[in-house]
Amino acid sequence: MKGYLKPDTQKKSKHKTAVIKKTLNPEFNEEFFYEISLSELSNKTLEVTVWDYDLGRSNDFIGGVCLSCHSQGDALRHWMECLKNKGQRVERWHVLTNELPRSVSHD
Asked: Ranges for the C2 domain (predicted)?
C-alpha cells in the first residue's frame, strides 16, 4: 500500500507499507500521521493505492481511493468528518476503485 498527501511539492508525504506476499486481498493494519494545519489539510488529497508486487516485473495496480473535498459519497463524508474532528481518529472502510489516481507515482 502507498499513501500520499497531495499536492506534495517537497515529496515528503509518501507512506509505504511492507509487501504482503501471496495474496491479492492483503489486509494492512498500519497507521501513519501527517503534521499539517487544518487549513492546509482542507486543500489536500489523500491518495491510497494498493499494488501487486511481482519480482522482476512491473507492479500491477489493484485499486485505490482518494479522500478530499473533491471526492464523492463515502470518501467525501469521511474527509469532512476528519476535518470536523481535528486531532481525533476517524476510521472508515472504503471500497477500492480500479481507477488509477491521475497524480499517482509508480515508485
From this structure: 1-94
CA distance 45 to 67: 6
Q: Between 75 and 9, name the one with better pLDDT.
A: 75
pLDDT at 28: 83
Among left, alpha and beta (phi > 0; psi -120 to 50; other), residue 39 is alpha
CA distances from 61 to 67, 73, 81, 96 (A): 18, 23, 28, 11
Task: Give this prediction's pTM.
Answer: 0.82
**What pLDDT sits at residue 106?**
46
Copy the grid coordinates of residue 83. 476535518
Which amino acid, residue 106? H
Residue 79 has pLDDT above 70, yes or no: yes
Q: Residue 101 contacts by C-beta under 8 Å, 6 or more apart in sequence?
A: 47, 49, 64, 66
For residues 66 and 101, what is the distance between their CA atoms, to the nearest angstrom? 7
Strand, coil or helix: 75? helix
Which residue, 55, 41, 48, is CA-closest to 84? 41
